[in-house]
Hints:
single chain, mainly alpha, two-stranded parallel sheet
Amino acid sequence: MIEPGDGLKRCGWGMGAELYMAYHDKEWGYPEHNDRKLFELLLLEGVQAGISWAIVLNKRENYRMAFDGFDPKIISGYDEKKIAELLLNPGIIRNRLKVRAAVKNANAFLAVQAEFGCFDRYIWGFVGGKPLVNHWNSMAEVPATTPLSDAVSKDLKQRGFTFVGSTICYSFLQACGLVNDHVVDCYRWKECQA
Length: 194
């Protein structure tokens, strides 16, 4: 649990590869309220379906360039020509369903923003505006889904989102800090509550 060199205790998955450690130390589990960032993470969690998060993290900058900085207004207007262009881009996961899902989800995201004023207000409403803090002793205790992720998934699907199954939603909730699933002896567990 201790990363050589800095003496900080981390969740087991957050050690080793530099990219993983940076994501663990600077992003994962910290309460996110920026709509653009929330959209980015929702899109990337959907892209992860069936593949490793390491692959997605390694392609993240390519996604930012290919998908116009994750601007849902721009992505919502992607036409067949743009989709075909994306499917030829070796810097992203070239899965037709996932690329089309980004466009569909951008439109659904904009609809949520129009209804609630911002996506942040909508998504944080599921937890009453405050992160749920879990007390796991090991990552083996962390569930893949919860009743919360089931509810979020169901509501997102009803609003027209796709690639938002309960497992994807739980990963999204963890990434955005709606749920603090750092293990209790990880230094980020307390930081993400501050």
